[in-house]
């Protein structure tokens, strides 16, 4: 099987390649592309692979633009941290739609689906429709929230479940995932993106710099002008203040 990976995060591309080769050792990874521009140029100048793994959010825009600018004559498995693009993904030559961080079991199922697709005489678009209807019948929710994150730790990649995250912190131009053990990892999402991805019953956007897990809230006390002062576990340097406009919603969230 000859494949191409389109992914703008090098460690995510490397991790995906490693899992694919572990599942299908004879796979030939022809290229790892990082942008729409690079992908359009590559597909215009090279023989197309058997299968493409494609992230949706790339450094220079939405990867669906690739398929508008050039014809990709092979099936695609989309990989993304967002689930709102599922319908649009199935309009392309899509075999499957995997939410990041990608687990080995989900990846194996997607590859098997591709292999089964090769054995059927159904046109790809009809097969996609059947897949979509099947997923709907199983009750897959378009509002399903992110349950785990893939982070870089030294030279390796590890997965951290959302329940182990104490809070997300914007600091010095990056967003950090901080675990209850106090470990910090850089994540490639903004707080605005994370706010949409996380379960609102568990996580609350306290201010511009912080999204907190309800289990990380150690102490809440009144502050000036209707604001609240927040103490977290693990502790965080500096005062964590919740504005008066958010104080009521925060109290409701805590069920105070």
TrEMBL record:
Per the UniProt entry, the signal peptide is none
List every position bearing 4-aspartylphosphate: 55
Tell me where on the tree of life, at the top rank, the source sits.
Bacteria
According to the entry, every stretch annotated as the Response regulatory domain falls at 2-115
* Entry keyword set: Phosphoprotein
Report a single Gene Ontology molecular function.
DNA binding
Gene3D superfamilies, A to Z: 3.40.50.2300, LytTr DNA-binding domain (2.40.50.1020)
Q: Which residues form the HTH LytTR-type domain?
A: 149-256
Show the PROSITE patterns listed in the entry. HTH_LYTTR, RESPONSE_REGULATORY
The name under which this protein is listed is Two component transcriptional regulator, LytTR family
Identify the species of origin.
Salegentibacter flavus
């Amino acid at each position: 099987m000859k494949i191409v990976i389109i992914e703008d995060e090098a460690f995510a591309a490397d991790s995906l390649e490693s899992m694919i080769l572990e599942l299908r050792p004879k796979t030939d990874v022809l290229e790892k592309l990082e942008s729409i521009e690079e992908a359009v140029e590559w597909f215009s100048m090279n023989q197309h692979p058997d299968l493409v793994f494609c992230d949706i959010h790339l450094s220079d825009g939405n990867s669906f633009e690739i398929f508008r600018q050039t014809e990709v004559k092979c099936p695609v498995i989309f990989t993304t941290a967002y689930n709102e693009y599922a319908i649009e993904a199935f309009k392309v030559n899509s075999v499957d739609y995997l939410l990041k961080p990608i687990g080995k079991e989900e990846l194996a199922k997607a590859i098997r689906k591709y292999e089964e697709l090769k054995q059927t005489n159904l046109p790809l678009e009809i097969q996609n429709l059947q897949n979509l209807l099947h997923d709907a019948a199983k009750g897959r929710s378009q509002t399903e929230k992110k349950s785990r994150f893939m982070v870089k730790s030294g030279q390796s990649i590890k997965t951290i479940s959302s329940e182990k995250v104490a809070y997300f912190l914007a600091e010095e131009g990056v967003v950090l995932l901080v675990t209850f053990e106090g470990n910090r990892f850089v994540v490639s999402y903004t707080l605005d993106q994370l706010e949409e991805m996380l379960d609102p019953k568990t996580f609350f956007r306290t201010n511009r710099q912080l999204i907190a897990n309800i289990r990380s809230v150690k102490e809440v006390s009144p502050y000036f002008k209707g604001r609240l002062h927040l103490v977290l576990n693990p502790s965080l340097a500096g005062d964590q203040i919740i504005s008066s406009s958010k104080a009521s919603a925060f109290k409701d969230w805590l069920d105070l």
